[in-house]
């Protein structure tokens, strides 16, 4: 949750934190990440709730996901799974596969030499 004390819109300091966000009267609103986004079935969805930070003066509302660490790990593992799938099926374009490899490097899931090796593998097939 943000530590900022002022509203981003009107700079009021009257802020309500951790406000529950609801889609209807019974369920909280959330976000979801799929463990296997390319699977036809059993994508393995992991979700977390959203909490709101609401300005009590103008009503400006920011949304924050809670339990971020688990969600981020699932997201990263899904990204890694996407790479091995794309290497085996060649279902993705070269650009998409290079983009995926770059993402893995950015997220620290592979190191520079692994990145170079995967890039070379993809480019050899062109
Ligand atoms: Zn405000």
**Count of β-strands:** 4
- Any ligands, ions or cofactors bound here, and which? zinc ion
Outline the low-pLDDT stretches: none
By secondary-structure content and strand pairing, the structural class works out as: alpha+beta
H/E series: EEEEHHH
Q: Explain this structure to me?
A:
The chain contains three helices and four strands, in the order ββββααα. It is elongated and about 60 Å long. The protein folds into two domains: 1-66, no CATH class; 83-126, no CATH class. Helix 1 (68-89) runs antiparallel to helix 2 (94-106) and helix 2 runs antiparallel to helix 3 (112-124). 38% of the residues lie in helices and 21% in strands. Zinc ion (ZN) binds next to loops.
Short note summarizing the structure:
The protein is of the alpha+beta class and 126 residues long.
Features:
alpha+beta, 126 residues, binds zinc ion, 4-stranded antiparallel beta sheet
């Amino acid at each position: 949750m943000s530590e900022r004390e002022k509203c981003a819109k009107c700079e009021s300091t009257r802020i309500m934190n951790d406000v529950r966000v609801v889609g209807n009267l019974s369920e909280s609103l959330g976000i979801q990440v799929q463990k296997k986004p390319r699977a036809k079935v059993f994508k393995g969805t992991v979700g977390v709730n959203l909490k709101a930070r609401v300005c009590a003066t103008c009503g400006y509302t920011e949304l924050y996901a809670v339990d971020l660490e688990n969600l981020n790990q699932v997201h990263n593992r899904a990204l890694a799974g996407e790479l091995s799938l794309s290497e085996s099926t060649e279902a993705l374009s070269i650009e998409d596969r290079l983009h995926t490899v770059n993402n893995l490097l950015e997220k620290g899931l592979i190191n520079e030499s692994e990145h170079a090796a995967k890039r070379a593998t993809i480019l050899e097939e062109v």
